[in-house]
Amino acid sequence: MIIIYLYKVSQMADYFVLLVEPKIEGNVGAVARSMMNFGLKELGLVNPCEIGDVAEKRAMKAIDILKEARKFDSLEEALEDVDFVVGTSGVETHGERRFIRIALDPEEASNKLSEVNGKVALLFGREDFGLLNEELTRCDMLLRIPSSEEYPILNISHAANIVFYELFKHKTLKEKPRKASGFEKEKLHEHFERLLDAINYPEHKRERTKMMFRRWVGRATPSKWEFHAMMGVISSAADRLLKSKND
Amino acid sequence: MIIIYLYKVSQMADYFVLLVEPKIEGNVGAVARSMMNFGLKELGLVNPCEIGDVAEKRAMKAIDILKEARKFDSLEEALEDVDFVVGTSGVETHGERRFIRIALDPEEASNKLSEVNGKVALLFGREDFGLLNEELTRCDMLLRIPSSEEYPILNISHAANIVFYELFKHKTLKEKPRKASGFEKEKLHEHFERLLDAINYPEHKRERTKMMFRRWVGRATPSKWEFHAMMGVISSAADRLLKSKND
């Protein structure tokens, strides 16, 4: 039997960040920086405030994203070639029209969006009024950031930053330090047991303490290096004690 | 037979947000706002810049958090009554022996922190240089936000905002075994150091191995019982070795 493994390259959506009528240029710059921090490139501005020095300063290294931002006179114009529209809503509203604000949290939204192809617009509304109802009705998905009831309104660049972070988190596999293998770990446990012997650890407590150490190692998930450093200390202590016992 | 179920209200950690030498007052205000967005209250500032109108404007409704922020002359002073120290690191260093900066992502860190009781300090470093190595060595756990390699440096209030968001998201209400306090932990570290003495551990590796052990304990978040069992083994090994050395 021949088994063929197919590794498909994921078809990622193209994200297009769209700020609707931003009023504070510093926020626009901060959004640009945050976009670059999480690998997003395309920024659009619908009827923005003037974008000057303050925005540029806040953009830091993301100045190109800011300078290349496309400006639009209306949301409709900005959404012309967009396949899927995601809106963000800071406010949970009550009453009959609230259905238009039923929202996913950023993690749920990121999971769903990983299945979407094409061009996805991420809409962020005005600093004071957010997105208007007619703008929300244009959205295919709504997203809301869970936050304290006492003060649920995030700064717009902070809200965008969390959305970008969740999107980034869901498509990347962070490289981690190499973990100790099972075999190596068993060696560590053997040396720990030798150490218990060497210090004449009470018999009736032994199983429990060995398990404590096993759990401890399990939860700490030491890297290969950390693991060898710990093994060095424990085996050396055990060797010396057992040697002085036998002398 | 009568079974009595006791539902204990969870002992959640107290979070203490600590900005180390912030240079831009707007960032301090933005952090205060973000704290309130996610239900955090206590802010500390180590040698901050002047905090004036710009900070207050950015804090918006979180003005009280800003006004009640405690100021400290040194990190040591700020950490006096703190049980567990979390540092944030913007820079990823390569090679697993760059142990000093091996970090968890905010989600992993939040999961671990949900098991910690007592007072937890969340450290954020300078806008330009982050936390210095000697400050990082004081940390029980390090945290790093996954971000684009092209531009991995987040604005400090954006970084803080993501950490607060993940903590808020992961808040769990579940009874947990009592964790070892900061004072007890320092005792464990003292005994570990005595053990290194007792085995004539090479001088040039000592600082690194002590830190490895500190991080290991930090990530494993041992219960009080586990902690005492480990302390028993280590102190007993050290005692016996030092005694046989002096005989």
Explain what the structure shows.
Two copies of one chain form a homodimer. Chain A has helices spanning about 25-35, 55-60, 65, 75-80, 105-115, 135, 155-170, 180-200, 205-220, 225-245, and strands at about 15-20, 40-45, 70, 85-90, 120-125, 140-145. By secondary structure, chain A is of the alpha/beta class. Chain A folds into two domains: about 1-170, Alpha/beta knot; about 180-245. In chain A, strands 3-2-1-5-4-6 form a six-stranded parallel β-sheet. In chain A, helix 1 (about 25-35) links the parallel strand 1 (about 15-20) and strand 2. In chain A, helix 1 runs parallel beside helix 2, helix 5 (about 105-115) packs across helix 7 (about 155-170) and helix 8 packs parallel to helix 10. Chain A is elongated.
Report Rg of chain A.
27 Å
- For this structure, the quaternary state is homodimer
Structural class by SSE content of chain A: alpha/beta
- Give the end-to-end Cα distance of chain A, rounded to a whole number of Å: 62 Å
Q: Most extensive interface: pair and counts?
A: A-B, 66 and 63 residues
- The strands making up the biggest β-sheet of chain A line up spatially as 3-2-1-5-4-6
The whole-number mean of residue pLDDT values of chain A reads 83
The description of the largest β-sheet of chain A is: 6 strands, parallel
Helix proportion of residues of chain A, in percent? 40-55%
**What is the domain total for the residues of chain A?**
2
* CATH fold annotation of the largest domain in chain A: Alpha/beta knot
